[in-house]
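Posted in: Protein Modeling Q&A

I'm a second-year student putting together a small comparison for a lab meeting, and my supervisor asked me to include a predicted structure for GIY-YIG nuclease family protein. I've never done this before, so apologies if this is the wrong subforum. The sequence is pasted below exactly as I got it from our records. If anyone can share the structure token output, I'd also love a short note on what stands out.
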Amino acid sequence: MTDRRKELLREYKETARPMGVYVIRNVENGKCFVASSINIPARLQRHQFELQNGSEAVKSLQAEWREFGKDAFTFETLDLLEPLDTPGYDPRSDLAELERMWIEKLEPFGDRGYNASPNSN
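Accepted answer (user: helix_wrangler)
Welcome! Here is the predicted structure, written out as tokens:
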């Protein structure tokens, strides 16, 4: 491996990935799925892969992907979380709070979305 290639690989590994809250929207019926991730681009790519291959864990989302097709869905970032410059910082609780706020705002349950209702245990 050349020195330049090693340097580029190291830079890539050290680059912070965008973390925050994302939404998958069905533009045909307005339903959405809201979640958070420490690496939004990778998580959205995984959702797309799973939907295309019929292995998405959110079964209602998978069913409507089959019904409406991939062109009926958009994948968007709703909010980014800037990591704190604190040694040992774990963003999970901050991400969970940000996700909770967006879920409260969008209410993606039942006829409005694919998230599990907070009342369904």
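A couple of things worth pointing out for your meeting: The helical segments are 3-14, 40-52, 59-68, 92-106. The longest helix spans residues 92-106.
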